[in-house]
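Q: Protein A?
A:
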Amino acid sequence: MRLIHRWTAVCVLFALAGLGAADPVAGQPPAGGFPIYGLICDRDPGIVHPAEGPFPPEGCEGQAGIKMVVETGDARPIGSCMTDGEGFCTVDAPFDSVVIVRQMTDTVRGNYAPTRNPIMTWNYTEFAGAQFFNIPVQRVESTPIPRAATLRIHSRVCPPGFAGTDFGAACHDTAPGYEQTLFLNGPAYRTATVDESGNAAFNDVPPGDYTLQPGLPESTARLVTF
């Protein structure tokens, strides 16, 4: 009788445990481990699923410490997880429902960004999950902003119709218009005075296209790119 009593007690405990496990919350689909991957790749591998071929794909490896946040399709929080050394973590997400997974980009080490973020998917099979492939961010070299500088002008007397570049041979080395004023118009307006050597300097000139107008009678304006 004593042995029968003990056996009956054990059977009752198993029955109670089984009833508790098979009694889901009314109206809620059962939850399961929803797999998430956070991988660092040297290029975009495209759409690759863990159940189809080698995984991680070639050129990709997991990174630990990437935080993933999961919510339902109507933006109700489900949970979050942090990837391990293989770039893997799981969250208990409701089965047969839409889930949205967001990768927290500030938790990724290095200059990488995900090809998709967030990922919306349907957790309806054992193969459901979310895979984040983080590829190098293209760096755009910034062009330094040019600074203002001094534009120097040297004045010479050239024969009528001169259009060459050999000023030293074709033009007189005299300094015409001593103390005449030169005008520079463009992104900025500047004036300068010709000295006894035929030189003039416009100070603090920002880059751009300018029109140089000598202050001599019948002089011709010239376009200067600086």
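Q: Protein B?
A:
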Amino acid sequence: MRILFITSNRLGDAILSTGLLGHLSDAYPAARFTVACGPVAAPVFQDLPTLEKLIVMRKGPFLSHWRALLGYAVPRWWSMVVDVRGSATAWVLPTLRRRIFATCAGDDHRVEQLGRLLGLTPPPSPRLWIGNDTAKAVDRLLGDDPRPILSVGPTANWLAKTWPVERFAELVGRLTADGPLKGARVAVIAAPAERAGAMGVLDALPPDRQIDLLGTEPLPVIGGVMARSRLYVGNDSGLMHLAAAAGAPTLGLFGPSRPENYQPWGPRADYVRTAADFETLRRSEHWTLRPTESLMTTLTVDAAEAGARSLLSRTADLDTVESVQDHGNGDLPHPLIAETDDTAGFDDPDAGVLGMNGGAAEKAD
């Protein structure tokens, strides 16, 4: 039995679709899956235990990426084709069953919208697969240091959604001064091209508390670090969804995007937002494809700290790393660490950003 799963170019949307893929993998454990996605999102799927082939769709002239997918998929018979991009490709492939997502507006979450594609209520939660080699790489990176880990994602690929870096630095200082994160090591995470924008957080830390993940590790390893973090705080981005899928208590920072559609998913996730609401922000002169200023400035450090401490209190049962690893994201029916080997070759040196969800800079594939 073979199933073709076509998912997003964007990291965040691809991660939100992993719940559907995980549900299918659980329902059909003997099936072999082919996953087609963009290069930024591809590493998310490399440790899927039932993966047969990963097709990395790099955009080219004259829709060459879609023609390449058709060239592979048309000669093969598929038991099911699931297309969460809603493309025309799925309509022409030979299959017994096809499920094609139709984008819909509304106040429900993207995960709920995707769940309806397979008639699943409640929808399956996004998940993260981490193979043995990836888990070993995480162990080597973190060592046996018993201090808790605070992970932060201070960048986004749309400046309007980016909380000022100096506020991230202040928040980190406050959270690590006392409480369950006192003296914590801090993993600062961003894509290689975003390193300069995140260095203000890293530079504010003493060297022995720095975990530099500013373009230094592949996404599966970053996800593994998140899974061992006591808290993740970050802008609305693909990294935020990766942290929630990894099972880390995740606080998303929102402003010019809709949390009702894209807040981090799961019982260990929450968000805080700017004092200015979405409709006010979208009327700003800085609501452009290439803004020159952030639209996150009405979110105070006090508000972010209150949200973080509330989430830490709600997730006090996660005071050990093992509890995060054991349970993953809320209702996941499987261990976080999958018994598979790594598949090499999915790092994309041309990928300059880590994800974009729900903002003005969304664009069609």
